[in-house]
Amino acid sequence: MPSLPESITCLIAELGKWPGIGPRSAERLALYLVQSEPEAVRQLAKAIVSARDRIQSCSVCGALTERQPCAICEDTHRDRSLICVVERPVDIISIEKSGAYHGLYHVLGGKISPVNGVGPEDLRIAALEQRLASAPNAEIIIALGSDVDGDATSFYLARRLAPFKVKLSRLAHGLPVGSSLEFADELTLSQAIEGRRTMS
Amino acid sequence: MPSLPESITCLIAELGKWPGIGPRSAERLALYLVQSEPEAVRQLAKAIVSARDRIQSCSVCGALTERQPCAICEDTHRDRSLICVVERPVDIISIEKSGAYHGLYHVLGGKISPVNGVGPEDLRIAALEQRLASAPNAEIIIALGSDVDGDATSFYLARRLAPFKVKLSRLAHGLPVGSSLEFADELTLSQAIEGRRTMS
Fold first, then answer.
1. For B127-164, how does the pLDDT look when each residue is reduced to its tens digit (9 = 90+)?
2. What's this model's pTM, rounded to 2 decimal places?
3. CB pairs under 8 A, 24+ apart, for A174-179?
4. Closest by alpha carbon to A82, among A146, A131, A120?
5. Cβ–Cβ of B8/A32 closer than 8 Å?
6. Residue B14 host element (H or E)
7. Out of 1.10.10.10, 3.30.700.30, 3.40.1360.10, 1.10.3210.10, which CATH number does the structure's domain B71-198 have?
8. Is the N end or the C end of chain A the one with fewer CB atoms within 10 Å?
9. Residue A149, Cβ neighbours under 10 Å: how many?
10. Do the strands A79-86 and A139-142 form a parallel or antiparallel pair, or are they unpaired?
C-alpha cells in the first residue's frame, strides 16, 4: 500500500504529540487541515506562533500573561491580602471561572515529588516567601490537588511558611456538588464527614 | 474576572473550528501550546503550513498527493482495470488500510444532495466518464456511504455510466465483522439477509 504523502505523515506525528489527541484524531485533524482553505490554515499557524510568542509568565505570580505584571496582579479592585497557591497557571483559569475568589495568585510550577525528582527548590516557593515578607497580614489559600504529591506539598508549605505567621487554609474536600453519595469514593466520603459543617 | 490574554482567546477560537474539538478541548490544547517549547511550536506551525502548501488533488483520480499524478495512479503493479468510486479523498485511506483492494480510485468530491444544493454537475462525474472512455473494459466499484444521498448518488451513477457497458458493483451491506445480531439495526439486518451468500 502506498503510504500517505510525507507532509501529511509529518503533520499527523506533530498533532499526535498533543495531550488527549490519539493517532486517529491526529489523522482526522491532519486530513481536515490539508483540505482547508490555505488562507485559513495560514491564519491558524499564525495564531499558534503568535500566542506562543506573546505569552509569558507573570514575574510576580507566575500566571500566563502578555504583559508584566499580569492583569490580576495589577487589579486594584482585588483583595491583595489573599494569595491562592496553585500548581499550574491553568489552575488560575479554573478558579477564576468559579467566580468565588477575588484575591491574588501564586503559581508553584509543580508539586514536590521525590519519584519524579521534583524537590522544594524546583518550585517557586522562595518567590512566595519574598511576597509574604512585604505583605505581613496576608492570608494563604493552598489550592493543590489532593493526591499524594499535592498533600505532601501542602504540608511542606504549611511548615515552611509558619515563620511568616500568615493565616493558612486549604480547599475543602467533600462531595462534588450535584453528585450523590453512591458515586463518592471512600476517601472523599471520609474527608466529607471529617470536614462536616455545622448548620445554624 | 479578567479574561484570558487575547492571544490565547484567539487561539482557542481557531482550534475550536476543528472537527471534533469542543470548547473545552480547544482551551486545553491552546493552554498546552502556549506553554510548550517555542521551537516545538514553530515546528508544528511549519508542519501545518507546509502540509497544506504541498498537498493537492491528483489530476486523474482526485486523491490527496504531493505530485502529479498520485502514487496510486502511477503504480504499475495495481489493477488498472478496476476503479473504486469514493466520496472524499480520505475514503481512499480507509480502503487502502483494509488491504483488500488493489485497483485505482476516483474521488467524486461529494454526494448528490438536492437539500444542500449539490447536483451531479458539482461532482467529478465528467472526469470519470473521460477515464472510462479510454478504458473500455474497466470495472467500477461504487464505495459511497449508504445514507439517502449515498444511495441516490450510487443509483444516478449506475444509470449515467450504463452507456459505457462497464461492470458495476457496490460495496456489500451487512453485519460489521465481530459484531453480534443484537447490535445491528433493522435496516442493516434486512440488507444482510437480502445480500446473504451461499456457503459451498
1. 999 999 988 788 999 998 888 899 899 999 999 999 98
2. 0.73
3. none
4. A131
5. no
6. helix B6-16
7. 3.40.1360.10
8. C
9. 19
10. parallel
Alpha-carbon distances, residue B68 vs A102, A135, B58, B74 (angstroms): 61, 69, 6, 9
Cell of residue A145, nine digits: 490537588
ipTM: 0.75
Peptide bond just before B19 cis, omega within 30 deg: no
Q: Which of A25, A28, A49, A107 to mutate to test the interface with B (most CBs of B within 10 A)?
A: A49
CA distances from B128 to A187, B114, B125 (A): 65, 21, 5
A11 vs B42, B47, B97: nearest CB: B47
Closest chain B residue to A40 measured between Cα atoms?
Answer: B14
Residues A93 and A98: their CA atoms lie apart, in Å, by 9
Q: Classify strands A56-57 and A64-65 as parallel, antiparallel or unpaired.
A: antiparallel
pLDDT at B94 over 90: no
Query: What's A6-54's CATH class?
Result: mainly alpha
For A62-92, how does the pLDDT look when each residue is reduced to its tens digit (9 = 90+)? 999 999 999 999 999 999 999 999 999 988 9
What 8-state DSSP symbol labels residue A23? H
Distance CA A32, CA B89 (A): 11
Residues spanned by CATH 1.10.8.420 within chain A? 6-54
CA distances from B28 to A46, A58, B38, B114 (A): 18, 20, 17, 39
- Do residues A118 and A156 lie in contact, with contact meaning Cβ atoms separated by under 8 Å? no
